[in-house]
Write a structure and sequence with these properties.
With 444 residues, this protein is α+β, with helices and mostly antiparallel strands. It is built from 17 helices and twelve strands.
Length: 444
């Protein structure tokens, strides 16, 4: 079949209409496009020729089969602005070198050494809570995962600064939703109050990571963390990494390495609070396997139902809900041919909520992941960590961290949602709860 040129898509009522709609509500905008036009949708984001993809076969084409025909395509996004050229944003040979550089620190054998570091902050948190307390669970999870990332990756203690770090990250992510992608470089030069807030947040995080690096270097001694590896590492041509390269990698790992897991845990608590039967089944498994003690990495194979709960939460609320790519050359996706420079939005969220690939896709059904292979959900339709050569480097770290923190806290505490408006997802760079997740704590 000869590829046709134009997929279906909406006509803009006025120039920039889609750009404004996307900036106002990214998640709602792409959901409407999917609902009205299907798996491949062409539209304009200001000057950009944009295409939304949400079918497993099409995402596989972009992320795996034709990955060399695309670049990451995050032009103007907040991640490039403040994370620099770390592994999250780099391209081509440099990205490949950075992945090879960091992979030993995130290898399965190394991960086993991180287990105690992961359960310790979670155990402190569960001890600090009081029966009957009301709290927003997302900042609590952010503090735990930030402490874990800082200790394992940088051998640093940042718990005292967790609130300030969390506020800075929130400022950056909120700012990213207000600035449409093609206009971001222009808007950043304007003396607006919102831009001054963004600049203060960036400066705070930049100063923080520089201080942590300086403290580590000044302390001397041998440590077995990622920062030590970066200090000793070399570029492709054999030179030591520059201070800026070390800074960008460390900041990327610290911030991106805790944000997504904290959100996955937050959505898991929200779902468990909505489904006391699932909570009870998971609790029975935790009691049988752990008997009240802290979990270890050796326990994870036995926590099969707990893993299914976390897997289903990642399906319903994938933190990395929208990925971007830009075509370097002409590409064919399905029945359509696209020109170089076309900007692609790839949505695991839309794919995860498609009834063709998941029975009753809006339902929270952990046991769907226990089905035999012929009845289980299509594995290629589940991409909570992306796919292909750019698949999340910290996927193994995130799985272990999420399960250990979930098991540690759930043994002691049950959560019930505070009455009020429903918890809604908010599509920023990551998928956050729009008004937080307010819960009542009840000791088991």
């Amino acid at each position: 079949m000869v590829a046709t040129l134009l997929p279906p898509g909406p006509r803009a009522r006025f120039p920039g209409a889609h750009l404004l709609a996307f900036a106002r509500d990214r998640l709602g905008f792409v959901c409407r496009l999917k609902r009205e036009y299907g798996d491949v949708v062409a539209f304009r984001l200001g000057p950009e020729r944009a295409v939304l993809l949400s079918h497993p076969a099409h995402l596989h084409e972009v992320l795996v089969r034709q990955h060399r025909a695309f670049q990451k395509g995050r032009r103007g996004e907040v991640t490039t602005q403040f994370l620099g050229e770390g592994v999250l944003n780099s391209e081509g040979a440099r990205h490949h070198h950075q992945r090879r550089l960091l992979q030993p620190a995130l290898h399965r054998q190394r991960l086993a050494h991180y287990a105690t570091v992961m359960t310790t902050p979670a155990a402190r948190l569960r001890q600090a809570w009081q029966d009957g307390d009301t709290l927003d669970v997302t900042p609590a999870m952010m503090r735990v995962t930030l402490a874990i990332a800082a200790h394992t990756l940088l051998h640093a203690d940042v718990e005292a600064e967790a609130s300030a770090i969390g506020q800075a990250i929130t400022t950056l992510l909120q700012g990213s939703s207000r600035v449409p992608l093609p206009l971001a470089p222009l808007v950043r030069r304007l003396p607006l109050p919102s831009q001054r807030r963004l600049q203060r947040a960036e400066a705070y995080l930049d100063t923080l990571i520089s201080r942590l690096i300086d403290e580590r270097r000044a302390s001397g001694g041998q440590t077995d963390d990622v920062l030590a590896m970066l200090v000793d590492a070399q570029t492709e041509d054999g030179r030591p990494l520059s201070p800026r390269q070390i800074h960008d990698e460390a900041l990327t790992l610290l911030l991106a390495g805790h944000e997504t897991t904290a959100l996955a845990l937050s959505w898991t608590w929200s779902l468990l609070a909505h489904h006391p039967d699932v909570d009870a089944a998971m609790q029975a498994e935790l009691q049988t396997v752990l008997g009240g003690r802290l979990p270890t990495v050796e326990d994870l194979p036995q926590l099969q139902y707990t893993r299914m709960v976390f897997t289903e939460a990642l399906r319903l609320y994938p933190p990395a809900w929208l990925m971007t790519r830009r075509a370097r050359e002409p590409v064919t996706i399905g029945d359509y041919r696209f020109a170089p420079g076309t900007f692609f939005l790839l949505s695991p969220y839309l794919m995860h909520h498609d009834a063709r690939f998941f029975h009753e896709p809006e339902a929270f059904v952990p046991t769907r992941w226990a089905a035999p292979p012929e009845a289980a959900p299509a594995r290629d339709a589940s991409l909570p960590f992306g796919g292909g050569p750019r698949q999340c480097l910290g996927e193994g770290f995130a799985w272990m961290e999420g399960l250990l923190v979930l098991a540690t806290v759930a043994q002691v505490w049950r959560m019930a949602l505070v009455p009020g408006p429903p918890v809604e997802p908010w599509g920023l760079v990551t998928l956050r709860p729009k008004q937080g997740i307010q819960v009542h704590l009840a000791r088991r």
